[in-house]
Design a protein that fits this description.
It comes from Thalassotalea insulae. The protein has about 375 residues and is mainly alpha-helical. Helix content is about 65%, strand content about 0%.
Length: about 375
Amino acid sequence: MTQNTEQNMAPVIEKKRLLSIDALRGFDMFWILGGEKLFAALFMISGWSFFQVAAEQMEHSSWHGFTAYDLIFPLFIFLSGVSLGIGAKPLTSYPADKAQSIVRHGYKRLFLLIFFGVLYNHGWGTGIPMALDEIRYASVLGRIGISWFVAAMLVWYVSVRNQWLVAIVILITYWLLLQFVTLDGLGGGNFSAEGALNVWFDQHLLPGITYRQLPMDPEGLLSNLPSIVNALAGVFTGRFIIKHRTNGGFLISRLCLIAIGLLLLGYAWDLIFPINKSLWTSSFVLVTVGYSMLLLTLFYFLIDVLGSHLWAKCLAVIGMNSIIIYLASSLVNWQYSSQSLFGGLISVLPAGWQQLTLYGGMLLLQWLFLYWLYCRKIFIKV
């Protein structure tokens, strides 16, 4: 590749914010907000096997294994790490009062995400006044908060070399724990939903209730440990982007090679430590980081290198208010709103088109709400 071509591939970007990150976060949230239901409707309309396969990929794996829908959660954690890697510095780089303010904000973010996670789960049991033992404290937002916070503390207080060391030690230690440690007959290489070591931790140390009263919560205590590596991987990726952002060809090729290497390593580890979202196994971490990097590389190339911005801004409208719309997806009945507005049209359409219109309308209403916030520069962040 010639030097001129390399220079043409160098994107003009702001140091602290990349449109590709907001767009990819919006793309990630799109499926949570109801986008996953569109494939089933399209299959009903067309009968094409492609949409059937896509609809199947929009379901979580039953236990071991991996589907596209399993990537949504770890991708969000990865992207939180990317933003951290782009913007954060060791606290020694700041004046003392600024460093204290940053740390206070980190704790605030952690506790707010844990609280919002309980709110999202409707986890207060039978209602107010709350029964503390009926609350589900574990949550998606709680895990995002924990993984981001630990990664932030490492960025603020620990050298880059030791951050890499921590990530490697976490993955290996977690595997050794689940493979060889036994507590009350649980663990010792048992990776089932009833017999994994995670069950012991959730039954003995996790306050409140588990998801659907299962023996192990999918966002339980022990599996928070490897999710930290998803955030750290995002940190390393963000730093790599900033370091090589003026050399687009090198950056994109290296990110792709690293991602493919992680995928190969993750699928190889799957042979002895199965890829499993609920257990958040080390092999699951490597595979999800690999796919996350490939997606980010694709979005970065299309948006920040080639300058394809229109569709990206449509997704960024979602990504820039991701927390508020995630909460709203639990607290607001968007399907009822869509049915109320478009019910007359829906009722006269064939079955497949009814589903497509219902869920398409639901997505449209959520996007319009976010666009209203976007136009007024209202960005609700934690």
